[in-house]
Amino acid sequence: MNAIDATNVSKHYGSTTALDRVDLTVEEGETFGFLGPNGAGKSTFINILLDFAKPSDGQVEIFGTDCQRDGVDARERVGVLPEGYSVIERLTGRQHIEYAIRSKDAHDTNPLDILDRVGIRDAAGRKASGYSKGMAQRLVLGMALVGEPDLLLLDEPSTGLDPNGAAEMRRILREENERGATIFFSSHILEQVEAVCDRVGILQNGELVAVDTIEGLRESMGGGTKLVLTLDELRDSTLAEIETIDGVETVASVGDSTIEVTCTNDAKMDIVVALHQAGIEVMNFKTEEASLEDMFIEYTGSRGR
Ligand SMILES: Nc1ncnc2c1ncn2[C@@H]1O[C@H](COP(=O)(O)OP(=O)(O)OP(=O)(O)O)[C@@H](O)[C@H]1O
User: Fold this and answer.
1) What is the architecture of the domain spanning 222-289?
2) Residue nearest ligand 1's atom 7 by CA
3) Does the CB atom of residue 39 touch ligand 1 within 6 A?
4) Which keywords accompany this UniProt record (predicted)?
5) Top mutation candidate among 10, 13, 47, 302 for ligand 1, by most atoms within 8 Å of CB
6) Tens digit of pLDDT for each residue in 56-113?
C-alpha cells in the first residue's frame, strides 16, 4: 500500500494558485524530500494531507484513507512536525511529550526516552518559554515521534537547528526509517534532502516539476558529471574535438590551459583517451558531481535559499 497518494490536487486562494494539479505517490518505507523555494506550495500540500486545508480539486489519501473524508482516521498513523508550531510556554518539555502521549494513546512511551533521543533530556523539567528556537524544534520533533507513527510528516524540520542539530535530526530520520516509518519532509535546504532521501519532488509555483531519485535527477541533467581538466596546451581545435565525443554535453575553457566539460559518467575516460591520442597531456584531472543545488537551480531557475 502507498503511504501517500495524491491525485490531481489543486488549491486556489482567491487568484493565487498554491497547488496546480499535483499527482504524487510516496511508497511505504520511503524517505521522500519535498523541495521547493519559498511560496512553492509545500506547506499547503502538507496542510491538505492533515486536513487543515481543503483541496479546491483532487484527492489525497494516507495509507488508503481519504484525508478529507476520514481525516481523523488518516491522521491516526501520522506523526507531525507542522511549520511554525509554537510550544506552549507554561508547559515543560516533559509535559509536552506527556501531552502527545495522552493524545496518541501511547502510554507505554517513556517521555524521558523521547527527550533523550532529541537531545534535550537535561531540559525536561524546564518550561518551554526558556527554550531556544533549536530546543523548541527538537521538542516538536520529539512530539512527532511519540507512538512510533507509520508516517512522519515534517514541514521544514531543520528550522532553527544549528549544523549539529540538523545532523542529529537526519540521524533520527534514518533511525525512524529503519524502524519502518515512511518519511515525508519538506525543505528548501537542499543538503538536508540530498543527505537522507530516497526520492525527491521539486515543487515550483504549485507545480510538481520533477519527481525522481537524486541519481535520476543527475542523469536527466545529462549525467551530471563535471570534469575540470588542466592540459599542457590548449589548442584552437581542442574544444571542438571534445564536443564530438559521445556523452559530452558542454565544453568551455576557463583560463589558458583549463577546460570544464559536463558529460555522462561513461564519457569521462573517452575524453582523456582522445586528448592523449591528440598528443595533449592532462596535467590535472578533477571530477565534480552536480550537486542537488545545481539541479534545483536548473529546474526552478531560482536559488533555493
Ligand atoms: N491561507 C492562505 N491564504 C492565502 N494564500 C495562501 C494561504 N496559504 C498559502 N497561501 C499562498 O499559497 C502559496 C504557497 O504557500 P505555501 O505556504 O504552501 O508555500 P511553501 O512552499 O510552504 O513556502 P515556505 O517555504 O515559504 O513555507 C503562496 O503564494 C502563499 O502566499
Assistant:
1) 2-Layer Sandwich (3.30)
2) 13
3) yes
4) ATP-binding, Nucleotide-binding, Transport
5) 13
6) 999 999 999 999 999 999 998 999 998 877 899 999 999 999 999 999 998 888 999 9
Residue 303 has pLDDT above 50, yes or no: no
Nearest to 209 by CA among 197, 198, 224, 220: 220
- Ligand 1 centre and the CA of 38: distance in Å? 8
Report the nearest atom of ligand 1 relative to the CA of 41: 18
Portions of the chain given CATH number 3.30.70.100:
222-289
Q: Would you tell me how many other CB atoms lie within 10 Å of the CB of residue 49?
A: 25
CATH of the domain spanning 2-213, picked from 3.40.50.620, 2.40.50.140, 3.30.70.2190, 3.40.50.300? 3.40.50.300
Query: DSSP letters along 160-210, please?
Result: T--HHHHHHHHHHHHHHHHHT-EEEEEES-HHHHHHH-SEEEEEETTEEEE
CA 42 to ligand 1 center in whole angstroms: 8
User: Which comes out higher in pLDDT, residue 43 or 160?
Assistant: 43
